[in-house]
Amino acid sequence: AKQLGRNGFALFSSDLREQAEQRILLLKDMRQALCANQFVMYFQPIVTMQTMEITKAEALIRWQHPTKGIVSPAEFIPLAEETQLIHQLGEIAFTQAVDVLKQTQHFKNKLQLSINVSPVQFSAKHTTLLAWQGQLAKHQLTPDMLVLEITEGLMMQGEGRSQKRLTKLIQQGFAIALDDFGTGYSSLAYLKQMDTEFIKIDKRFVDGIEHNEEDLVLCETMILMAHQLGLKVIAEGIETATQHELLKQAGCDFGQGYFYSKPLPVEMFIDHLNTRNKQ
Ligand code: C2E
Ligand code: CA
Ligand code: CA
Ligand code: CA
């Protein structure tokens, strides 16, 4: 039994060490990637449900790794948040979104772009968030062209620094979307109080609506409730025509998902918009 115990312990500690080593490697790799401009934003179209017109898009970060290929944000955002690198990634998202806004200003239908903002960008002692309005102004752009996607946790942090900054950004005119709605501890009172403009219904609700009556009822209820509070609804993860139809019938305002388009690299996204605009 002693032998086993010792083996067990040895295995456990070498696992931990391996994990720690991997984190250090990943961190080193990320720092190099920042210098080498390996982080790029992809843009996923968001359509107005009634017309299928592309009226918005969400910027989603990708790591173009020289040997691993495209690395998903799920693999590096958490570590970036722990190490404050998230501020630099947040700046990349903002800067590349501004670039796309500049390129699409002459389009008949102006786009509203959304970017994901980490709670860490709000809570850190120093933040670049409050410099964004000024940077937009330099390009004759206004905050209402951007939607900041935040998660419910941020809204629940009470009287802190984060909430003051959020209030400030709303005053400056940025639109706010509550991401992954229904998956956390949403407080409807906060929704109203914070002047949120959109809620995003999480993919895990959308997934079930074709086959599961309860999921459909949940989506319908979230949409009704949001509308009664004066909020607009974006459903994410729409993959089929049936899901599109059901959500459209339920009064959902905007849709996002592979059914319309996957996230696209900037040039492809602009091409896609150009083709659609000519039709
Ligand atoms: P999210 O904000 O909930 O983004 C939606 C995710 O769903 C994206 O994954 C998108 O590619 C994916 N998606 C959209 N439509 C479909 C669909 O029809 N089917 C399926 N299977 N997936 C769909 P992605 O790009 O891998 O991003 C994952 C998460 O990483 C995001 O979830 C967000 O929380 C985070 N993230 C992405 N970019 C950024 C960023 O620039 N900053 C921060 N802080 N977080 C980011
Ligand atoms: Ca999002
Ligand atoms: Ca989401
Ligand atoms: Ca999600």
UniProtKB/TrEMBL annotation:
All residue ranges annotated as the EAL domain in the record: 23-277
Superkingdom, taxonomy of origin: Bacteria
What organism is the protein native to?
Pseudoalteromonas luteoviolacea DSM 6061
What is the protein name given in its UniProt record? Diguanylate phosphodiesterase
The secretion signal range is none
Shown chain mapped onto the complete sequence? 722 to 1000 of 1001
